[in-house]
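Support request from a user on the community tier.

User writes: "When I paste my structure tokens into the form, the page sometimes reloads and wipes my input. The last time it worked, I copied everything first. Here is what I submitted, just in case something in the input itself triggers the reload:"
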């Protein structure tokens, strides 16, 4: 299905009432101020865009009223048929629910869904089970502004209005999402709120879809890898630095990835890759003074980053993207005595490689960008701050629904010669595919500060959550329409018994899953056919 972008800003603005240019406050419609079913979802940032579009397209009925979409920061604006609205850590959708049997008690009612990506998947596990408050977006006329551009990514070809909101407040989540099953979030992978313990009752847990993950490197590093691997005969002689095709996509050995993230490689030229040493690690000379700083437990740490240093953009503990990476490369929480990822800080002395920890995948984008471009990065969601006097190469990890247009200065690479595409994931050749779950308390929805409905609508909340978690093949593939890279199509797959290992556009079904003998999600298991 093709998406259409219609210029209907005037019509939508008229329907909304008080709407103006960027920075102008507006009047909210009833589904924002007086929702019948209000839902708070915390957790995974990797599938967050997919979840927002699922709410917009599966729950909201544009025929019953306008659809209001809110984000904390417009990282990418929806354009035409391929670009999704992107945010940093917060989004919300308010609308009138579709009148169909899928929504049950929520049909023809005002629904408001808020999603917090703060601290990633870990916040979609333990805080949900224990009703621990996390930060969600505050929707207020004074704190939200109409975006200067009005766009859409609706499956019916219509538009929604999106706005930015600047403040957050604490509220216990009703539900959560995690890039892998909640049971994995213990020990070294646990969120700050502690180990996940599955409730004995009043608990629902459901598979959503498989998501392809990969390793990213600064574009400059990607370019040198291309040049080196042409020289080594790994890539065709016709490949030039900067070529974005799959045929010219350079590769990293999985053993090299594990070595870098465990801190065994301090300088880019320490360890050859397929017999070739990296040499152009920095575009600028090392400046004087400290380039990054942070205070931990009252102690100030400063770091003088130098030309040639390995720079790692990683996620905080509790992130699902981090958890799947640790499981995939280190067997964390699957085997005893496994290696750990290098962290930050290491002590009052200089600490190499340079490591920046990030709260969300959006923050990791910012980290990769700041190091590549020599710009500053200062946020409570990033440690340490980057002062902007240093330019280098960085390595990180992301799900395959980030940086689709290539506007960020980083690129995905092949691993062991295999590109992270749907074709290779469904064939079984690319194994870094992990399965997103959604979980929620089926009762015990509370107001801990932000909920607008004083008496939570239990039936309505459960109906909305069942609808949000009800992903079908068509909706998954429609979302994948937004994840078409120059090297191929990627994104989400649906585990389906008997599915073909040959991918065709329109059918993202995969015969592979990670499940135990009782058919429960188990990320420690190798991919196996259903």
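"...and here is what came back when it finally went through:"
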């Amino acid at each position: 299905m093709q998406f259409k972008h219609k210029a209907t800003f005037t019509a939508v603005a008229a329907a909304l009432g008080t709407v103006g240019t960027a920075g102008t406050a507006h009047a909210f419609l009833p589904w924002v101020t007086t929702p019948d079913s209000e839902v708070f979802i915390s957790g995974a940032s990797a599938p967050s865009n997919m979840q927002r579009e699922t709410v917009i397209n599966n729950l909201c009925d544009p025929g019953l009223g306008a659809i209001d979409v809110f984000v904390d920061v417009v990282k990418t604006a929806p354009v035409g048929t391929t670009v999704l609205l992107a945010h940093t850590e917060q989004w919300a959708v308010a609308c009138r629910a579709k009148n169909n049997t899928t929504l049950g008690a929520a049909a023809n009612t005002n629904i408001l869904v808020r999603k917090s990506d703060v601290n990633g998947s870990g916040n979609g596990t333990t805080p949900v089970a224990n009703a621990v408050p996390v930060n969600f977006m505050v929707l207020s006329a004074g704190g939200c502004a109409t975006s200067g551009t009005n766009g859409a990514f609706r499956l019916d070809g219509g538009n929604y209005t999106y706005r930015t909101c600047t403040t957050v407040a604490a509220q216990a989540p009703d539900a959560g999402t995690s890039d892998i099953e909640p049971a994995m979030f213990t020990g070294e992978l646990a969120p700050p709120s502690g180990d996940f313990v599955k409730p004995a009752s009043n608990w629902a847990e459901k598979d959503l879809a498989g998501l392809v993950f990969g390793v990213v490197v600064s574009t400059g590093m990607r370019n040198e890898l291309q040049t080196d691997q042409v020289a080594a005969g790994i890539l065709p002689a016709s490949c030039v630095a900067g070529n974005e095709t799959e045929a010219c996509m350079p590769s990293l050995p999985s053993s090299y990835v594990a070595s870098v993230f465990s801190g065994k490689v301090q300088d880019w030229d320490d360890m050859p890759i397929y017999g070739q040493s990296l040499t152009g690690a920095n575009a600028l000379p090392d400046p004087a003074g400290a380039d990054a700083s942070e205070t931990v437990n009252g102690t100030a740490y400063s770091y003088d980053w130098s030309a040639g240093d390995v720079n790692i953009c990683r996620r905080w503990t509790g992130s699902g993207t981090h958890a799947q990476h640790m499981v995939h490369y280190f067997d964390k929480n699957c085997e005893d005595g496994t290696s750990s990822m290098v962290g930050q800080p290491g002590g009052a002395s200089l600490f190499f490689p340079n490591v920046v920890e990030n709260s969300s995948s959006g923050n990791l984008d910012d980290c990769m960008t700041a190091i590549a471009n020599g710009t500053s990065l200062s946020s409570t969601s990033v440690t340490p701050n980057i002062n902007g006097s240093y330019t280098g190469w960085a390595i990180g990890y992301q799900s395959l629904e980030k940086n689709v247009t290539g506007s960020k200065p980083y690129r995905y690479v092949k691993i062991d010669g295999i590109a992270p595409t749907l074709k290779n994931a469904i064939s079984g050749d690319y194994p870094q595919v992990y399965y997103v779950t959604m979980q929620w308390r089926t009762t015990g929805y509370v107001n801990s500060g932000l909920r607008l409905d004083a008496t939570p609508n239990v039936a309505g909340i459960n109906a909305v959550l069942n609808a949000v978690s009800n992903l079908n093949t068509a909706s998954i593939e429609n979302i994948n329409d937004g994840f078409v890279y120059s090297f191929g199509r990627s994104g989400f797959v649906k585990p389906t018994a008997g599915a073909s290992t040959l991918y065709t556009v329109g059918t993202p079904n995969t015969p592979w899953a990670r499940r135990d003998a009782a058919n429960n999600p188990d990320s420690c298991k190798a991919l196996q056919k259903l």
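Agent notes: The reload is a front-end session timeout and is unrelated to the input. Residues 219-231 form the longest helix (13 residues). Residues 1-25, 283-289, 346-351 have pLDDT under 50 and may be disordered. Escalated to web team.
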